[in-house]
Amino acid sequence: MTLKVSDIGEKELVKYIISNSKDITPDDTAVTPLNGSNLISTCDMLIQSRHFPQNMSYFDMGFKAVTVNVSDLAAMGAEPLGFLLAIAMPKELKLDDFKEILDGVLKACDYYEIPLIGGDTNEASEIIITGTALGLADKPLMKDTYQNGDLIAITGDIGLAALGFNFDSFDNIYVKQALEPKARIKEGLILKDFATSATDITDGLASELYEIKKDGLGFMIHEKLLNVSDEYKELASKLNLDYLDLILHVGEDFELLFTIKKDDLEKLPIDCKVIGEVNDSDVIELTLENGFVERIKNKGYEHYVSE
To answer: Which of 78, 165, 186, 259 could covalently link to 137 via disulfide, CB atoms 3.0 to 4.6 Å apart?
Structure first.
């Protein structure tokens, strides 16, 4: 049988690319030694029909294109250096709509203090925005440098966007998070001096945990520590959705997931939420509010996989 890319999915494709290139690191970004520091570079492509909700404005499309790239810099603890924009669009796109996309890009660059330094344009059947973000980090944060006994924490609530994608109105925090996500660049610059490892949550908490897991060590996440509000549970129930599935498996949060020593947590000058700990179980598990423990499934958003 001839395999298609949909048979293996995005993550396996990335593994194949990495295994065939001696210069690519399996982290959130590329890390290139440069003048005593490290050049941090990352690239993300957003396709209108796949990555932008139908109720997302052109401005928010442009803003998000910067956010997804800057979020990778944040996960590495990198100082933003410059942003490159490549955009393909239908020739029938209204000029005012293009200007709105660009305005979103420029406003995001101002917000994250990362200058737009170049790019390219082309024609396509739908809007496709590819961003490349560059940064500098003397000691970049990596995904798998944690140790047994480290605490697992996140920089904010997760699952808000996952719930927000199911609403058509614009009058709640969940929709706002879905349409106007923000990267945690300032938090990343602080965490580089405290965290033992870090990544950003784009494809769901479960997916990111499996992405950073290394042999011999495991993670225990506690539902009580996730501190899911009653309102969240009620809204999910009304939509016939499993609230834990939203929190664990959907993503688009752009919060940072990091590990930290217990002693360093007390010194950390930013708010965070401890949700679990690293152990030697070699599995990824969740302790439910009722005390039962269950294995967390390796499931999250992934390109190419047939729905």
So the answer is: 78
